[in-house]
Automatic annotation (TrEMBL):
Keywords: Transferase. Signal peptide: none annotated. It comes from the Bacteria. This is Putative acetyltransferase.
Length: 124
């Protein structure tokens, strides 16, 4: 991934999360993109990235062989929200993570969005 693509993805997240959270989420995205094994999946319209989700691998001390990922952030440019872009990147992501043998994915995000893709809350 080149620097222009990284900058574009960071800007997608900044705009997707708006004035109050955008800068913080953009910094989070840039930090995750700086890690060599982060998986980035984007959706394009007319040759332009309009949505992106990042999956950053991590290890549990008690389960070092488990292939785990943190899903965060997932963002879609405001003009494309509600037009299936989030669904598109989530479905592509699930397929990709399955193909690489992911054992678990943990989500840091809005709890009402992810259950439609099979994610369940572990908070009790």
């Amino acid at each position: 991934m080149n620097q222009t693509e990284i900058d574009t993805i960071v800007e997608v997240h900044r705009l997707a999360f708006g004035k109050e959270e955008g800068d913080d989420i953009a910094r989070l995205a840039r930090g995750f993109l700086d890690l060599p094994d982060t998986i980035s999946i984007s959706s394009e319209r007319d040759g332009k990235i309009v949505g992106n989700v990042l999956f950053t691998p991590f290890k549990f001390v008690d389960h070092p062989d488990a292939k785990c990922y943190l899903l965060a952030p997932c963002g879609v440019l405001p003009a494309y929200q509600g037009h299936g872009v989030g669904k598109e990147i989530m479905e592509a992501s699930i397929e990709h993570l399955s193909s690489v043998g992911a054992d678990a994915v943990f989500v840091l995000g809005v709890p009402t969005f992810y259950p439609r893709y099979g994610f369940v809350s572990t908070y009790r």
